[in-house]
Structures are given as C-alpha cells and as structure tokens.
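Question thread 4412

I'm putting together a teaching handout and wanted feedback from people who do this every day. The idea is simple: show students a protein as raw sequence, then show them the structure tokens that encode its fold, then repeat with a second protein so they can compare. Below is the first pair exactly as I plan to print it.
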Amino acid sequence: MLAGIGNPITELIFVDEDVVDLDDGTIPTTLRLDSFNINNNNIQLKLCPEHLPSLSSLRICCAQEIKPNSLPPSLTHFAASVETVLEPGSLPPHLTCLRLYMTSEAQVLLPGLLPPKLIELDLGDRFCTVIPPGALPSSLTSLSLGHRFNHPLTQGVLPPSLRILELGMSFRQTLAPGDLPSSLSKLVTRHELMNIVIGSLPSSLMDLTTATVYALEHGALPASLKHVRFLSKPNLEVGSLPRSLESLTFVKLLYCWKPWIIPAGLKKLTLDSKFDHRILPHDLPNGLTDLDLGHAFDHPLEPFTLPDKITNKRLSEVPYQTD
C-alpha cells in the first residue's frame, strides 16, 4: 500500500474514513518514521515491531487491542485508547511518556506492568481500580489519575520521585501525613479537600489547585507554597494562607470580599469573572504587581486603591473616583 513512499518521511497520519489494516506489509521497512498518528476508527493496527525500527512516538485515537510484543521497542511516547486489559509485556520497555484512555474498567496496575523508565503517566478518566504499592515505577515524576479514581493513596503507593499529581472529580479520600511524597511540588485536585490535616501536604509543595477547602487549620498549607488556585468558594480566615504566597486565584464567585485573608507579600491576584465587590484603599497588598478584577467588576476605585507597584492589570474600564 505504501511501497511508493520513501524517506525523508518522519511523520505519518491516517485520518481517512476507509477501512485500512496496517499489517506487516503495509509500511515499507525503509521508511524511517519518528511519529505515527492514527485518527480513524476503521484502522486496525497489526504491525510487527521490526517494520517500524525508528518509531519513537505513536498516538492512536481509536480503540485498539494492544497485545504483548506488538509495539516497536523504540517507542518513548505512546498515547492510545485501549479496549482490552493490558498484560505484562504489552508496553515497550523504553517508554517515558504514556497516556492511556481505557474502555475497560477492569485494568489493574500490577508491579511490572508499567515500563521501568516511565516519567509521565496519564491513566485517563475511566481508570478506577486500586493502585498497589510498587505498581508505579520509581522514575515517575508526573501522574494524572482522571475523574473516576477514588481509592486511598496510602504511604508507599506514590513513588518518591513524583513532582506533579493530578486527581479528578471523584477523589474524596483523606490524605494523611506521609501519603504524598516529599518530592511533590504541584498538586491538582478537582474535588474539594474536606479536611487538610497539618502535615498532609509536603513541605516541598509550591503549587496547589483545589476546589472548596473546609476546616482549614492554620499551618495546614505549607510555607513553601507560592501559587494557589481555588476552583470554588473557599472557607478562609486570617492566617489560612501562608505568607510565602506569591500568586492567588479565585475561579468561582466569592460570597464576600475578605481582603484581610490576603497575604501581605502577594504579587499576583486574580478574582473570578463575576467578582463585583467594592475595593477600598489599603485592601490590596502594597507589593502587588499583577491584578485581574474580571469583566463584571463595576465599582469606582478611590485614589490610592491600586498599589503603586502594579504593572499588569485587567480592569473593566472602571473609573477612578475623584471626590
């Protein structure tokens, strides 16, 4: 089928609606492919690894059956919709980036299933089974567990190298001290953290995105935090946010404006698009350099309301009050 194609082709994309079987004779052995994308539900992948000796990136947007030793061992990046449970040996040993969108909810991550050099892992929105200790490789630095995952992440489940962790809407587990590795620098959770216990967030954490936080004790957020983003209405009081904070974002509408909760050293403040509370002089930190009030803000600003150091601001053409 592709016998007439030669080098220097490095990327091949199938998007036609024709039914195509990609088998051992479809792609010439002389074709030096680096990247291969399949965006067609009618295409079935039945390749012998020897026919793509240089392939490093493979992306399959339609459900496929991945059998052991069916993928080229040269792969380092692989993204696929998988319709069957993966068996040991199904994934190439040199993968560093893996994104799986599973149509089966029965997939279990057993020790040895994932490649030992994996750095980034996205398990998609349908993954919902328990992760046993030792199942995630020690090389992993980024992990996304998707919307359906809701199992405890007890100490030893997450590898000590992990730096980025994303949890979905269904995750409602309590995180105890020691559950999150001391290497973690960024945490994203789409559901509310019902109770952040002091010590449950590691002292290495610098970036936190979360929904509503209830019962936030003073000192529950580590002093290392630089960036915090609340996806819905937080319950905050004086001292809830650490003094180290540089960037603060509120995505959902605030019930009331509490300027006293904002740390004095804050550099960037983003208020949600429906924010429409009056801001008075001295409400904002003196060191603020970046301010986004959103398009709904419609109150005049008195003189000296905006700090002198602001260099970046987004206002809805709000006039200054002169008297």
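The second pair follows. I'd like the answer to focus on this one:
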Amino acid sequence: MTVHVTIPLEDKAKAELDAWAEPRGVPVADVLTDAVETYLADTRHIADARLRGQAALAAGDVHDHVDVVAEFEERRAAWRRRG
C-alpha cells in the first residue's frame, strides 16, 4: 500500500530538489522516497549495530584499545611491505 505524505520545505530546499531532479528526468517524489528509504535503512543499521555492541559489552566480549591499535598497526605495516 502506498500512502502520501505532505512535508513542509523551505523554498531553497525545494528549488535545490527541482534543480537536481529536473535535468535527470526524475520526479521529486522519487528522490524524496529514495531519501526516506535510505535514511530508514541507515537508521535501522545503526540501531542494530548499537544493540550488538551493547550485547557484546554485557557479555564481556570487548577488546582493549591498546590491543586494537597494535593489531591495526601490524596489519598496516604488513600491507605496506607487500608494496
């Protein structure tokens, strides 16, 4: 099911949307729909990552910052040696 939503936009924002969409032959509604869907997917991804992080912390599955930096530096040095 599709629903229609009305949102307020400043004139400048609407002009920018039009200026982007018109030369591409893309309806502004499609641009906004894609933007909302992307925002929601990103928000879900971040929320899921935060929950996984909190669960890992609660389970004691953590790494000391010093160890993480050391491993990163080791990997970077190995990468540089490969040329």
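Top answer:
Good format. For the second protein you could add a caption like this: The chain has three helices and no strands. The longest helix spans residues 28-58.
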